[in-house]
Design goal:
Length: about 290
């Protein structure tokens, strides 16, 4: 069954992708999220056109399938056929979360390639082969626990004098990411605050000092620089190392979750948890 187009946004011969791209830019604060959504929407547009979702069932990897489904959801809302997409999703039993995914944490826990020492070694290899500015981005990422793209944006803000005055609170020794909501408060990924010592700030400042790199500094630039040297880009390990090390140092899981942008939904965390006053000092001491 062909897609019955609503209005004039998607004529029979094709979809107005430029209009959809503008729609995404207004819907998402993150350019990267909008870019990925557009990519998957173009690739799987035929699912809505043909009213046939079999291709989605063959996608390997639950996370990728979720991203594809999210993209189709946004596209269906743009086209005005969201109800049809929901009916199709039920007909093909396309779930947002699979019970089998609960095995993933246990698989990771007993994977020798993903234990703390192995991840730390991989990160050290990346730092060793990279020029100092790129290597320092990775160090900064490990010390703040931000996602790779967030770490790059954080370094930019630190080196922007006007933004830094709003971004950093010296009395708290904290980077307040939430003040730049378009960058750090996305729909599914958030970063609220990071405690940083003067030494950590110096690492970020040293990256800007290398002006030739500052002009092209981006997560993609770091990733390509790593690959050119024959090593897989594993910056995702930085965030895992940050959380694991804080846990080893006795920091409460609720505090670690907060520092990594996750607000627990438990009644205890939301209404009764009152951390000790020295929790910031313990976090900074862990990376001292």
């Amino acid at each position: 069954m062909a897609l019955e187009v609503v209005g004039s946004k998607a004529p029979a011969q094709g979809l107005d992708w430029l209009g959809f791209q503008e729609y995404l830019s207004k819907t998402y604060g993150s350019k990267n999220t909008a870019k990925v959504t557009l990519l998957y929407a173009k690739k799987f547009y035929h699912v809505l056109v043909q009213n046939y979702a079999q291709d989605l069932l063959t996608i390997e990897g639950v996370e990728k399938r979720m991203n594809v489904m999210k993209s189709i959801t946004v596209l269906s809302k743009y086209l005005g056929c969201f109800d049809r997409w929901q009916e199709m999703r039920r007909r093909y039993s396309l779930k947002w979360w699979s019970n089998g995914d609960w095995n993933k944490p246990f698989d990771r826990l007993f994977n020798d390639n993903l234990n703390y020492d192995a991840m730390l070694q991989r990160v050290k290899e990346m730092i060793k082969v990279l020029p100092p500015p790129y290597g320092n981005i990775i160090k900064f990422d490990c010390l703040t626990g931000l996602r790779p793209a967030e770490a790059v944006e954080s370094v930019r803000l630190i080196n922007d004098k006007e933004a830094f005055a709003k971004y950093y609170k010296p009395e708290r020794m904290a980077l307040e990411h939430f003040r730049f909501s378009s960058v750090f408060l996305r729909r599914t990924k958030k970063a609220y605050i990071s405690f940083v010592s003067p030494e950590i700030l110096k690492i970020a400042n040293s990256i800007s000092a290398a002006s030739s790199y500052n002009k092209i500094l981006s997560y993609n630039a770091v990733r390509l620089a790593i690959r050119k040297r024959g090593i897989n880009c594993d910056m995702r390990f930085c965030r895992k190392i940050h959380a694991s090390w804080l846990s080893h140092c006795g920091i409460q899981s609720e505090i670690i979750n907060m520092l990594q942008g996750r607000i627990p939904r438990s009644v205890f965390s939301r209404h009764y948890l009152t951390p000790k006053l020295d929790y910031r000092d313990k976090v900074l001491q862990a990376f001292g």
